[in-house]
Write a structure and sequence with these properties.
mainly alpha; 431 residues; two-stranded antiparallel sheet; single chain
């Protein structure tokens, strides 16, 4: 046996070495495979956790936007009061209908006749205006005799309704879009910090040891700065919205002032009119030197340090200070709003809002099958004066709709979802 071992010692050693090597390599491979599985599982868990947190953050944005929309709506109704003008026209109609010179079938305000002249709107037309705008004369005025209005005065009032209805409804779309965007940018920036802090504070359970990590500087935000950062929404709610309304009103007056109140519109005409107004709001460069899209940031956020400090004073800070942490948040927000990608996102969100608005108005241009008296071809032609009550009412749907379909339409824009995901996952500037 010994002689056999001596003769084959070299071969046995080689065989043992190979066998041992294969065993060690097998163990190493098994260890690497297990390590890879653990890594993949950890990454999957991290991605799922991040996705869950991100989706929850978007839901939080919705709950924040809704009450802020109501605040803007109250100011918008007060600033652009259409209902009082409609009420004045209705009271004047009621007085005229009691005079012998006005027949019951033609009493009211304005209507388009075959000779293309403006005369009194039929009674049924005014009932439509009253029911859809939601105005009802008060009891205290019912006992008083309303003043008579000449046709010139009525025409002036209806032109006011025309301009204000378009201004209020189109401004509502812009304001809802801007408020939704700003809120999502703010909350996703803050959500990113919260997510990073939670990741760095995890316990490594597999090794049964607690990871003691001091969070990197800049990852944990102070509660005061987080609160003050969110307070900058005050600017849009109290200053920026007025700039939006002013710009929209300038463009609306420019385009529709010369359009007669008795102009008949097809749906194609209506879409062209809205598109023309939006095109000048977004792209014109002769209103205060820049277009809405180019000058968007000063609607959303203050531009100067004095304006920023004034915001903090308005929300209750006696001695406002913008330290490095808050300054970084504000500057990063402005960088996102100034980025080329954001202009694409903003345009897509506005398009979603305007498309929904035009779709909501489309039923007014559809002929009813049982309307035997109407001999017009498919594609109803509607008088602009008769469209205004529905147009004015749409602003309430945009701001106060429950559920708010316009808010959901903006949130579901693909470009907007991708943009908010980039904000939430942009860790390079934090770590």
């Amino acid at each position: 046996m010994l002689s056999y071992l001596k003769r084959h010692l070299r071969g046995i050693a080689i065989t043992a070495g190979i066998t041992g090597g294969v065993y060690i390599l097998g163990k190493y491979a098994k260890w690497k495979i297990e390590e890879f599985k653990d890594k993949v599982g950890a990454e999957r868990t991290a991605k799922e956790n991040m996705k869950r947190r991100f989706l929850q953050r978007q839901n939080d944005c919705t709950y924040v936007v809704l009450p802020l929309l109501s605040s803007i709506g109250e100011q918008l109704w007060s600033e652009i009061d259409i209902e009082s003008i409609i009420g004045k026209l209705q009271r004047a109609k009621g007085n005229q209908s009691s005079t012998p010179t006005t027949s019951p079938s033609s009493s009211g305000v304005l209507v388009k006749h075959k000779d293309h002249q403006i005369t009194d709107v039929p009674v049924e037309g005014e009932k439509k205006a009253e029911s859809e705008v939601g105005y009802e004369s008060s009891d205290q005025n019912s006992s008083q005799t309303p003043p008579l209005l000449s046709k010139k005065e009525k025409l002036k009032l209806w032109n006011e309704v025309k301009i204000k209805s378009l201004t209020r409804t189109i401004s509502s779309i812009y304001l809802l879009t801007f408020l939704t965007i700003l809120t999502h940018v703010q909350l996703n920036l803050l959500g990113r910090f919260n997510y990073l802090y939670s990741v760095l504070s995890l316990t490594e359970r597999d090794k049964e040891t607690t990871i003691q990590i001091q969070p990197a500087k800049g990852i944990v935000l102070s509660p005061d700065n987080e609160k003050n950062y969110l307070f900058f929404t005050w600017w849009l709610l109290n200053v920026g919205w007025k700039r939006v309304v002013e710009r929209v009103n300038i463009v609306v007056e420019r385009i529709v002032t010369d359009i007669p109140i008795n102009r008949e519109l097809s749906y194609k005409d209506f879409v062209w009119l809205i598109s023309e107004i939006r095109g000048q709001i977004d792209g014109s460069d002769d209103i205060e030197g820049e277009s809405m899209l180019q000058g968007f940031r000063n609607v959303m956020l203050p531009e100067t340090l004095s304006e920023e400090l004034d915001v903090l004073r308005q929300v209750g800070e006696d001695e406002p200070i913008i330290d490095g942490e808050l300054r970084k948040l504000l500057d990063e927000t402005k960088d996102f709003l100034d980025s080329p990608d954001f202009k694409v996102v903003q345009s897509a969100c506005l398009t979603a809002g305007f498309d929904l608005f035009q779709n909501d108005m489309y039923p007014h241009f559809i002929l009813l099958e049982n309307d035997e008296e109407n001999i017009q071809p498919p594609g109803k032609i509607i008088n602009l004066a008769m469209l205004l009550p529905d147009l004015s009412k749409q602003a309430h749907v945009i701001i106060n709709g429950v559920p708010n379909r316009y808010l959901e339409a903006v949130k579901n824009v693909k470009e907007f979802q991708e943009f908010t995901a980039i904000i939430y996952s942009s860790f390079d500037d934090v770590l």
